[in-house]
Every structure is written in C-alpha cells, then in structure tokens.
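User: Fold both of these, please.

Assistant: Here is the first one.
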Amino acid sequence: MAESTKIKKSIYLADDDEDDRMLFIEAVLEIDRSINVTEAKDGQQLMDILKLHSPNFPEIIFLDINMPGKGGFECLQEIRNSNTNFKNVNIIMLSTSSSSLSVSRAFELGASFYAVKPSTFDGLKALIKKTLEMDLISVEQNSGKVLMA
C-alpha cells in the first residue's frame, strides 16, 4: 500500500539574530509541528536558499529588515523584481520599528504585510498564528496591513 504524501506547509525565515530564529521556530512548532521552517541567517543566505530550492517555494517568507550585508529591503526588492515564482510569495517584513517610513518603504517594495516584532514569546506565537490563519490566497485584499500580535 502506498504511503499518503501530505504536503507540508513551508515557511522561510531570514533573521540575523540566532535567538530570534530559535524562538520563531519554537513558536511555529508549538502552533503546528507539521510546518517546515527553513531559516537563513542573513539576506544573502535567503537568496541562495531561494535559488537552490526553485521551483519549490514557501507559502510565506518572514523577512527581518535590519540584517548585515543584504538587508530585508534589498531582499524584498530582489524577490519582487525576479522572473521566478518567488515574486508572488507572501512576504511579511519583520522589524522592531513601527516607523511610518519603514512601513511605507516595505509596501512600496512589494511586502504583503509588515509586522512589528513582539516583545514576548506569547506575542510572537500570536503573530505567527494570526498569519497562518489568514486567507493568504486573498492577500491582494489584505495587502498593506500592519500586523500586530
């Protein structure tokens, strides 16, 4: 008898802070253990992973804005200007800042959503859960929103 193959949800996370990546993965696992999280320590590593895994792409990319080397805005612009399926992936920009300039720039470059990093683990879980429960197929209707936990 053939084993049933269930497609796992896939999330990519690019964040230079190792502790933030660890907490993010822990939060995702507490929400849904079947979700596969691929992590990148910076923007360049994310872009390398995207090129390596093409044409398989994640449902969501969580992208930290402030990273050394290639930052979140650079990655966002590169992804949105690419000639691949990645240009249609839902991208949630993460930042500790709620600056209107950062929010505006994120949306100008094509972010699906902008999220202020929660200061607590429960807040992070709530943000991730809210994101996963959203109907991302209709992201066009929701695009331009700032997510709060």
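And the second sequence with its predicted structure:
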Amino acid sequence: MAGFLMEAFDQSQKDKVAMASEFADMPALRGKDYGKTKMRYPDYVETKSGLQYKDLRVGSGASPKMGETVVVDWDGYTIGYYGRIFEARNKTKGGSFEGGDKDFYKFVLGSNQVIPAFEEAVASMSLGGVRRIIVPPELGYPDNDFNKSGPRPTTFSGQRALDFVLKNQGLIDKTLLFDIELIKIMPT
C-alpha cells in the first residue's frame, strides 16, 4: 500500500511539473524579454557600445573636446514603461511638471559626471545639434540609481517615475530615451 501511495505521490508531482512547464512558455510574451534583450531601431545609428542615436537636427558649430564644459538642454523618457516623461526641460508637460524655465544642464566632458550614454552622445555632437538617444541599461544609471550620475530629474514626480523604472526588479524595461540639444561649449 505504501508503495502505491508513493507512486501516486510521484505521479502527482510529475503532473504538477508538466502543468507548470505548459504555462512557462507564454506565446504572448515570447520575444519580449523586458529589459534583457536589446531592441534595434532601424533608423538609428548604433555605436560599438550599444548606444543608438538619431540626429533630429545636425548642428553647424564645433564639436566639444574632452575637458570642456558643455551646456545642454534635455528631456528624458522611459521607453519600456509607456514612454513616460521623467524630465521635461524648459517645457511644460502636464500638471506634474510645473514651474517656469529651468536652468540648462552643464557638465565637463570626460569627467564621468554623467551616464556613459549621455557623455558618448554629446562628445560626437556639433554645437546647435539635437540628438535623440536610446540608452540600454548598461549605459544608463550605475546600480540603477540616478543619484550616482547625472543627468537627474529636477522634479519630484520625475524622480519618482525614473526611480520606479530603475528600482523595479519585475518586467519593466530599463531602456531610456533622451533628447539632447547642445547649446554651448565652454573651453577650459
């Protein structure tokens, strides 16, 4: 009798494993490995690092050199989380982004003050240009913390939106999108 019960128990466990494996492959999610596989955007240029960019407006001025201070205007969006805005520089984008004009963002090129993707994108821009970049997680915020490297959201709601995406260990894609305008280059 004990052998029969043990065999029935084993069969029950095998049935549960078979049922679980049946649900493990969900065709609706196949190919959507959120935040783990990199999506290729065909109308963007891809660099060796994996950064993808498209110039919305090609600048006509000089390009910055390492060690120079650059002044940029930027917007930030979460691609995998409904394209939510987490920073809307100098634009009113809904009630949660209130206030007048904000100061432009400046940093020293080559100083590691900003995320790697931001630095790489700005280094190859020309003055007056506007570039849209697709930032894979490995070129984004270190340890998924926007307090470690810039650019940082300037509003509470922007900080909350970005933090939600970066800290969520679930199915949220951590790929980001930035629009960057190179406004000024200040020699050192």
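Residues 86 and 160 are 8 Å apart (CA to CA).
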